[in-house]
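Q: Could you fold this chain for me?
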Amino acid sequence: MRSYILAFATVLAAAPAMGQVIIETPNRDAARHEQRAMQERAEARQERREAEHRAAMGDYRGAAEADREARRDWRDARRHERRAQEESAPVIYGR
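A: Sure. Below is the predicted structure, expressed as structure tokens.
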């Protein structure tokens, strides 16, 4: 009981110093972007495997094309990850 009183007193003493309010709500767009990023990463892995297979078979032009697709998918995945992070950031009011 004594520790609860001490903790409550500490919170009250620090309350004037806490001059900001942080509001964080779940964002459906962030979840959608994260899901899309996972899908893009899976597609990139598949394209990379295809590029390796084509190169092993001697189809270097096809391997280069598949590698470009894999890089494009990785870039898209990173873009979706950034969007998910931006949209899930909390809103801070105060100082």
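A (continued): The chain has a mean pLDDT of 80.
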